[in-house]
């Protein structure tokens, strides 16, 4: 049976959506080694199982509990991802989206809290966003179930198979280091090498742990330090982490500029 992972920031309606999409539970327990609840359900149309990942803002874990999603991407087999996104807080939510798109699995976005976004005067052109990201973006209100059938339909349609791996341009220095690192990584069933390299340079400790077992740890650290120093010198970057973050943030700002308009407050217009 196909497996779909449900990923998103905390408090974006993940549990509400999980309940809308699944008819029955297959498993409820804990993720190995942590006190985080693990829920697996069967989609209502019986097409696949749905795996609920813990809510996170970034794949770069700050705690053991937050590492569950990264460990999942590093070692589990799955078919596709539903990324639930809070439409009223797109800017913050799209950061995880970018990290997931860099991973490159078939993905769709469930654009949740559309009622809240509307109430706040945000007009989101979801079709524009879909065409920019080249994945389905489905507006939903998970609390009432609005739009959730469309998610099931899209999962079954095969449209997500065309999901491209997002390839942001991190500039010549980092791109060269990414290429050098990716070249060193050999193995069966590896996650995408470019994604591993980026997560390593970003400082993801779980990825560092994995890569240290695959290649020369000293070489790895030297590459990281040299890359960071060069970026500091030529781009004034405070750290590799912030450099990567800023590149993603710029990309997100561009996405929002093209797909979101804030309607002028009626009261303001009249006064
Ligand atoms: P989780 O923390 O990501 O699992 O999110 P929950 O499903 O627990 O939802 C968090 C809160 O947001 C709950 O009070 C939900 O009822 C509410 N919620 C979920 N989806 C929507 C939605 O589309 N619109 C509104 N207004 N509230 C929602
Ligand atoms: K919650
Ligand atoms: Mg929840």
Automatic annotation (TrEMBL):
It is found in: Cell inner membrane; Cell membrane. It comes from the Bacteria. Residues 1-161 form the FeoB-type G domain. Mg(2+) 2 binds at residues 19, 23. Coiled coil: none annotated. The keyword Transmembrane helix applies. Keywords: Cell inner membrane, Cell membrane, GTP-binding, Ion transport, Iron, Iron transport, Magnesium, Membrane, Metal-binding, Nucleotide-binding, Transmembrane, Transmembrane helix, Transport. Mg(2+) 1 binds at residue 22. GO terms for molecular function: ferrous iron transmembrane transporter activity; GTP binding; metal ion binding. GO terms for cellular component: plasma membrane. GTP binds at residues 8-15, 33-37, 52-55, 112-115. Belongs to the TRAFAC class TrmE-Era-EngA-EngB-Septin-like GTPase superfamily. FeoB GTPase (TC 9.A.8) family. Probable transporter of a GTP-driven Fe(2+) uptake system. This is Ferrous iron transport protein B. It comes from Effusibacillus lacus.
